Amino acid sequence: NCVMRHQCEEGPCSEWDADLKPNCVMRCQSEACYESVFGEEELEPGEVDSVRSNKFQQCLRKEKSARLAVEREMRRARRGR
Question: What is the rounded average pLDDT of the residues 21-48?
Answer without folding.
Answer: 94
